[in-house]
Write the structure tokens for this entry.
Amino acid sequence: MGIDYTGLEALLHALPHVKKKKALTLGRQEIHISSTGMEHFLKKYGLPCKPYSGFCEPLLKDLGFDTVDSMDNSLFEGATILHNMNLPVGEMKYDFILDGGTIEHIFNAAQVCQNIIDMLEIGGVYVSITPNNNFSGHGMYQFSPEFYLSAFSKEYGMNVMELYLAKVGTGIEEWINVNSYQGGRNVTTFGTNEPVYIIAIIKKSSNGKNVLLHPPNQYSYEIDWKK
């Protein structure tokens, strides 16, 4: 888990949508980017340049968050909250949740989605940078656009604002926008053997249905059935 070149671009790109008070990272997110790369992105987004290494809490605080928590199933990396995301979370709320590579390691992905929805304040933003392709053996899952469009739909009080496929190590100018239906299932690919992320920027707009009690059908099928 960690913030690399592509993950940092996703984080900084999402910031204008975020109320910068309480942030949560799923797992502790370590910075995996050179000082040169960090300087490039901070300048690109008009932010003060400063070297960062280790875990991302100092970066997030410098970006304006008052509180930064981290949640993990183990304390081996010093997370502030010990919790198994296969199980429901307690009462806690955040304005921003960052997943830089956690959900793919958790068997009960549906519960993870509901936990994220439950922990977000209305108006809060969830940013996910997780495997889409060519990560075989990395985690339990690789995710498609249909997963995010289905699990974080308006029915659940969520709005997928931006959704991309991104080759690892690329900036936003190279990402493919897959936040669309286009008259059929979105099967866009890079046609590459390189590892590819799926990047989602999702906002909570209201309190909706529970994903576990009212599980979604696949997004594109729902649209087809309504024709």
